[in-house]
UniProtKB/TrEMBL annotation:
SUPFAM superfamilies: Activating enzymes of the ubiquitin-like proteins (SSF69572). CDD domains: YgdL_like (cd00755). It comes from the Bacteria. This is tRNA A37 threonylcarbamoyladenosine dehydratase. Residues 12-237 form the THIF-type NAD/FAD binding fold domain. GO terms for biological process: cyclic threonylcarbamoyladenosine biosynthetic process. GO terms for molecular function: tRNA threonylcarbamoyladenosine dehydratase; ubiquitin-like modifier activating enzyme activity. It holds the Pfam family ThiF. InterPro entries: ThiF/MoeB/HesA, ThiF_NAD_FAD-bd, Ubiquitin-activating_enz.
Amino acid sequence: MIPYWMSRTQLLLGDEPIEKLMTKNVLVVGLGGVGGICAEMIARAGVGKMTIVDADTVDLSNCNRQIPALHSKAGKLKAEVMAERLKDINPDLDLTVLTEFIRDERTNEILDQGGFDYAVDCIDTLSPKVYFIKACIDRKIPIVSSLGAGGKVDPSQVVITDISKTHQCNLARYVRKRLHELGIYKGVKVIFSGERVDQSRIIETEKAYPKKSIIGTISYMPAIFGCMAASVVVRDLSESVVSSQ
């Protein structure tokens, strides 16, 4: 039975797509500016089972762009803050919360045990990101990957496209290079912006560990990336809208 809180989505999509979404299982890895809003939009669309993964804690510098980041939540695990929100949105959500950074064999373990219908890559460190994408491809798990939202201010340049069509994005370039080394040149859906980044808005600092640098961000851009990633998942799983990709 479709619950009342989903009645507006039901009106838009109809019963069958909603009922289909309620049976689906989605994995979201990374709960920062992109992943937090993405996970929430997937839950609000009615997906019945989710696993969320992030080991990071809320820092007050996150408050300009991240859903779990509030002054009252400083120092708390982002995954636990998001879990509370998602269960408050949908009390019936079958939710698994992993408070860890995943990479290599742990990535394999999670993917092999999960039975996932879709995976969302919101990882912002290169090696785990590429490993996760490759591991999903190897298992034929549909995946959408978010590329660089930092340093961007123009939402009109954000698109859903194939990894092979990306440009003017450092993260995309590094990911493409690593995937090429693994024999993967296309076939990965990504959220991407070709907007040029002002390099003066990037600083190298040890505070960015495990990354090498910090890049300036604005409130709405990571959310736009996250909502677009969620739209890919929801549309593909419900088959209610024909993808234009």
